[in-house]
Amino acid sequence: MKVKIHKQGKTKEYSIIKSWKDVTLEKWLKLISFKHKTKSEEAAATISVLSNIPKDLINQLELKHVAFIMNKMGELQAEQNSSLKRIIEVEGKRFGFHPDLDSMTLGEYADIETFIKNDIEKHLPEIMAVLYRPIVEETESNVYSIEAYDGNIRIRTELMKKMSSEQVQSALVFFYSFVSELSIIMQSYLTQELKGMKEQSVTQDLQTSGVGLV
Questions:
Q1: Separation of alpha carbons 163 and 26, rounded Å
Q2: Which of 23, 91, 116, 180 could disulfide-link to 165, CB 3.0 to 4.6 Å?
Q3: Which of 62, 21, 65, 27 is nearest to 46 (CA)?
Q4: What does pTM read for this prediction?
């Protein structure tokens, strides 16, 4: 998207993101950090990140123009594609989303859980580095397998900062749905286990007292 700004009798054109796909995870993390600023600071910082308008010029924009630009950015975010991108390409390398979350190892899940507990917003690149891994095999129908998880994600984490925020958000929604279902299953399993332990305890008590046993 282009905007024209008039200043001192001159008109100059500047660029603003065309789509939410243009917003990398690295930029999105900056946008998230702006929520602690005042509204005016947040607007100025957001426009600075998502456009090539010079910072000194942003502060000279009229409020109606700032509101127009912010509304346009909000519309672009609302139009983003929320479907999961199972295969992504970052700097020429192809990565696949974990093809079967049901087979996720305890180590993988534990690392993600730790990143979430230690501030999910700061550790989104690490979470993506666990969920997205280099594709080692792939068929024409996009059936693929990914590298085994070894916990060494430092280099991949840096690459994941180049993902689009649209890809990150869709992956988080998908993973959250999986975790929610898993929690229900685990809760049901634990409930059954506790019930079984309670019944076993009652039976042992009865055996000890000799009540009701022949």
A1: 8
A2: 23
A3: 27
A4: 0.76
DSSP state of 102: G
Q: Where are the beta strands (DSSP E) in the chain?
A: 2-7, 10-15, 87-90, 93-97, 132-138, 144-146
Token reading at 125: 């690149």
140's tokens: 């024409």
Contact in structure between 30 and 49 (CB atoms under 8 Å): yes
Helix (H) or strand (E) holding 198: helix 165-209
Based on its alpha-carbon atoms, the radius of gyration of the chain, rounded to whole angstroms, reads: 25
Nearest-5° Cα angle at 170, 126 to 108: 35
Q: What is the C-alpha separation between 136 and 144, in angstroms, rounded?
A: 7
The residue count for the chain? 214
Residue 16's H or E segment, with its range, is none
What six digits make up the tokens of 186? 């685990």
φ, ψ (nearest 5 deg) of residue 118: -85, 15
Number of Cβ within a 10 Å radius of residue 174: 19
